[in-house]
Design goal:
The complex is a heterodimer of chains A (349) and B (512).
Chain A lengths: L35 H15 L5 H13 L4 H14 L3 H14 L5 H10 L12 H11 L4 H13 L6 H13 L4 H12 L28 H17 L4 H14 L7 H5 L2 E5 L5 E6 L2 H15 L4 H18 L4 H12 L8
Antiparallel strand pairs in A: 1-2
Helix pairs in contact in A: 1-2, 2-3, 3-5, 4-5, 5-7, 7-9, 8-9, 9-11, 10-11, 13-14, 14-15
Chain B lengths: L1 H7 L12 H4 L7 H4 L5 H8 L7 H4 L23 H18 L19 H11 L14 H14 L8 H8 L19 H14 L2 H5 L3 H9 L18 H13 L24 H6 L18 H14 L2 H8 L2 H9 L21 H4 L3 H10 L17 H11 L17 H15 E5 L16 E5 L30 H12 L6
Helix pairs in contact in B: 7-8, 8-10, 8-21, 9-10, 10-13, 10-22, 13-15, 16-19, 20-21
Classes of the chains: A mainly alpha (349), B mainly alpha (512).
Pfam families (chain A): PPTA
EC number (chain A): 2.5.1.58, 2.5.1.59
Cofactor (chain A): Mg(2+)
């Protein structure tokens, strides 16, 4: 007899045995030879859920099922329901979740559950002091974990943490240990230039406007913009072939409504023309393909004002990418060249 | 289980997934065992040094038909070493022997382009096995059985197998998963979920037939989906679950295939916030998922990601014509630039995010964004194929080399990358990606449905990309023997399966 069948506390429950389709006489697809322990626990789970029982014993049962299969999304939803109905200690739940999360790093359900628990304003009027420490512990295991970053984004918005010193300090620390952590760069952009509570959530401000106007701030803090551009330049200098800070800088300029040409001189440091005594181009010394792309975009924008020299420069840059520095994207670069030479709208950035 | 052997008409193989149970327990797949096959750090340093000249000892090891693009490290490499660059170097070194055609497993079998053939029989065997019995260690799949069915049925269909023999088994699988309150859960007694309902509807559409299609309670499905619609226009994956673009995509796939009313059910909570239909606010929700990088995130404000980009773009293409709905919501040049940067060399495959690694499954998630965005750029065309307005903007050759060279497991099944174990998820989506590069998908003005709602979604046609279409980097490097079936770029099942379930449902309208 199983753990539940032999327990007087569960005597009132008539378990609902698994129907995996076998009873039709046709063998169902992808069946699993469940352990007896799992079969019994889930048969009691079906029974208490069918009765919508929100009780202490049902809560224990959810923990038991989760310990055997944390990917069972239903049991998480049910657990949250019980915790709210019984008004269970939320801090205790978080403590327990910490252990489960570190054990099952790639699990989806845990992080949504954490968000549901944390979303109770009555229990968590402000951010619990240890919360960010725990997330940093998670990032130490997997610094690009999409679910953890999604949860952290939610925390920022829920507790209005955009300007919290801890946020930017954690991002700086993560970028110091790996400047190529694009998740951290994305979070930084959201902190600095993302929509605040006066706008719906989004990857860029003004997302409901015309697509080319996405990201454009209504009020620009030029000092912040300069600071962030400076930050990106320092990070680029340490690894010029890292795409993340280049994209970040494009996003910053876009937010400020400032042109890419502000960085022409900077980008030129990574794409140096070597000329002979007569001024004839001999070679190009390249340290970053992203700088080439940047310059191509700058010249492409100029070329719309009918400057054929800018157009030629844009095409020369795109050919560098196509032939040598990013040739896997040849068809895309060709498409860009064709747009420029045919006078169509160049790709914005 | 001798009964199964008989229905399949082939000898039952031993299920060979045991080693996979490591992932089920949430641990990393890279065990010490796989690492022993990897190059050492010192060989890595030689390969990845920022030198442009080929090393003497490497010249001879590559197949002569494989260009340097796929055998040499990128022209530029920063000296700074971080966790990201270490993982990238590791991956590159694991892929190179397979790309060069010099790996001991592939020597005598390469085609004239230096690409190994599709191990069709092995993959078919692998997928047949994946539909059978799993040992107790696979309990982590308990909520994913609808997916296991879909991935295998889809993969087998791509490989040319007739899966209608699975009709009754598919029916008996999904009956206990359907809830009386609408939708399908991951198993008996599990609450309905958009992902399981998506996998169930697609699987039933593929096996087809009155019995399979009529088991779906469409009216209950409509009511249940109505409870998932949110005030901001988005859709959650289940009641009490997260809201993301998977929810939006899966729900719109189900609604359009089953010809469900676009009007929200009378009791839908979202009606209290002024929303009237499933599409109310949906494209605005999706537009808020575009990030400063240009890509699309899972929910507003997070990092751009290839799988979510597909969900969002496919959802927009169900809502209307790609050249209308996509530019209305997305900054297309910005999106294009991000999407294009997902393809890496020398690996040839796609990565899902900036500074992450290539993975075979993105051959579908990123790969199938391409026909959608190319149609958004090129516009709708007459039903008879002419020369394309916008050709392929990515390297089909690269994707083909990555899939056939790096993703095929020796004993069947396809994988994320060399060193990983195969599974049905990666088998399905790498094959879908391979099919995608073998066909040219375009959007037309001729729909399979005369019904105006969602008609655009049923207007996709395809032609095989042939040798004579080859130019530049767009050559076919696979053999004709390795052709797969074509899949609908939005529904990820055959066009005929999508069209017939839609027409079947149209002929049985739900009463008002």
């Amino acid at each position: 007899m199983g753990r539940y069948a032999s327990d007087p506390e569960w005597a009132s429950i008539q378990p609902i045995p698994l129907n995996d389709g076998s009873e039709t006489g046709t063998v169902p697809l992808a069946t699993i030879a469940y352990s007896d322990e799992y079969l019994e626990a889930t048969s009691y789970l079906r029974a208490v859920m069918a009765a919508n029982e929100l009780s202490e014993r049902a809560l224990q049962l959810t923990e038991h099922v989760i310990s055997m299969n944390p990917a069972h999304y239903t049991v998480w939803i049910y657990r949250a329901k019980i915790i709210f109905a019984l008004n269970k200690d939320r801090n205790g739940e978080l403590e327990w979740l910490n252990g489960v999360s570190l054990k099952y790093l790639k699990n989806y359900q845990i992080w949504h559950h954490r968000q549901v628990i944390m979303s109770s304003r009555d229990h968590f009027p402000t951010l619990p002091p240890k919360e960010m420490d725990f997330l940093m512990e998670m990032f130490a295991q997997d610094s690009k974990n999409y679910h953890v970053w999604t949860y952290r984004h939610w925390l920022v918005r829920h507790f209005e943490l955009w300007d919290s010193p801890r946020e930017i300090a954690d991002i700086n620390s993560l970028l110091n240990s790996d400047v190529r952590n694009n998740s951290a760069w994305s979070h930084r952009y959201m902190l600095r230039f993302g929509p605040r509570n006066d706008q719906p959530d989004g990857g860029m401000v003004n997302a409901d406007g015309p697509p080319t106007e996405k990201g454009r701030l209504a009020v620009v803090d030029e000092d912040l913009v300069d600071e962030e551009l400076q930050f990106a330049q320092v990070k680029i200098a340490s690894a010029p072939e890292n795409r993340s800070p280049w994209s970040y800088a494009r996003g910053v300029l876009r937010a400020a409504g400032r042109p890419l040409s502000e960085w022409t001189e900077f980008a030129r440091k990574f794409v140096v023309d070597k000329r002979d005594d007569q001024g004839q181009l001999e070679d190009v010394e390249v340290k970053s393909s992203h700088a080439i792309e940047w310059l191509a975009d700058v010249y492409a924008q100029d070329s719309t004002s009918d400057q054929s020299s800018a157009r030629d420069e844009a095409v020369r840059m795109l050919n560098l990418l196509k032939d040598k520095y990013d040739p896997i994207r040849r068809n895309y670069w060709d498409y860009r060249i064709q747009q420029i030479t045919s006078g169509e709208l160049p790709a914005a950035a | 289980m001798p009964a199964i052997v008989a229905t399949l008409g082939k000898k039952r193989r031993k299920v060979r997934f045991l080693s996979l149970s490591q992932t089920i327990q949430g641990r990393k797949l890279d065990s010490g065992r796989t690492r022993t096959h990897m190059p050492t750090m010192s060989s890595l340093a030689v390969r990845s040094a920022a030198e442009h000249e080929p090393l003497e000892d490497e010249k001879g090891s590559s197949h002569p038909a494989v260009s340097a693009l796929f055998t040499r490290p990128p022209a530029l490499k920063d000296a700074l070493i971080t966790e990201t660059s270490e993982l990238q170097d590791e991956t590159l070194n694991k892929c190179l022997p397979f790309l060069e055609g010099s790996h001991s497993n592939q020597k005598d079998t390469l085609n004239r382009y230096g690409v190994p053939p599709l191990k069709r029989d092995e993959h078919i065997g692998y997928l047949y096995d994946s539909l059978e019995y799993y040992p107790p260690g696979f309990v982590g799949l308990d909520a994913s059985r609808p997916w296991m069915a879909y991935w295998a049925l889809a993969g087998l269909t791509l490989l040319g197998e007739d899966i209608t023999k699975y009709r009754s088994r598919t029916i008996s699988t999904f009956i206990p998963m359907q809830n009386a309150t609408g939708g399908f859960g991951g198993g008996h007694g599990q609450i309905s979920h958009c992902a399981s309902s998506y996998a169930a509807v697609l699987s039933l559409a593929m096996v087809g037939g009155d019995e399979a299609l009529s088991l779906i309670d469409r009216r209950a499905m409509w009511r249940w989906l109505g409870r998932l619609k949110q005030p901001d226009g988005g859709i959650t994956v289940c009641e009490g679950g997260e809201e993301d673009v998977r929810g939006a995509y899966c729900a719109m796939v189900i609604i359009s295939l089953l010809d469900l009313p676009l009007d929200l059910p009378p009791d839908a909570k979202a009606r209290e916030c002024g929303l009237k239909t499933f599409t109310s606010g949906l494209s605005v929700y999706l537009s808020r998922c575009q990030t400063f990088e240009g890509g699309i995130s899972g929910s507003p404000g997070t990092e751009a990601h290839g799988a979510y980009a597909f969900c969002a773009l496919a959802c927009l293409c169900i809502l209307g014509q790609p050249e209308v709905t996509v530019p209305n919501c997305m900054d297309v040049p910005l999106l294009l630039s991000w999407l294009s940067a997902r393809q890496y060399a020398p690996e040839g495959g796609f990565a899902g995010r900036t500074n992450k690694l290539v993975d075979g499954c993105y051959s579908h998630w990123v790969g199938n964004c391409w026909p959608l965005i190319q149609s958004a750029l090129g516009g709708t065309r007459a039903a008879s194929p002419k020369l394309s307005a916008v050709g392929n903007l990515y390297s089909r050759e690269g994707v083909t080399r990555y899939i056939l060279g790096c993703c095929q497991s020796e004993n069947g099944g396809l994988r994320d990358k060399p060193g990983k174990h195969p599974d049905s998820y990666h088998t399905c989506y790498t094959l879908t990606g391979l099919s995608s590069v073998q066909h040219y998908h375009y959007h037309t003005d001729a729909s399979a449905t005369s019904n105006e709602e969602c008609s655009s979604a049923f207007s996709w046609k395809y032609i095989r990309v042939r040798k004579s279409d080859n130019h530049g980097s767009d050559i076919n490097v696979f053999d004709e023997n390795d052709r797969l079936a074509a899949f609908h770029p939005l529904y990820v099942i055959p066009h005929e399966a999508a069209e017939s379930i839609r027409l079947w449902c149209e002929s049985r309208p739900l009463d008002a």
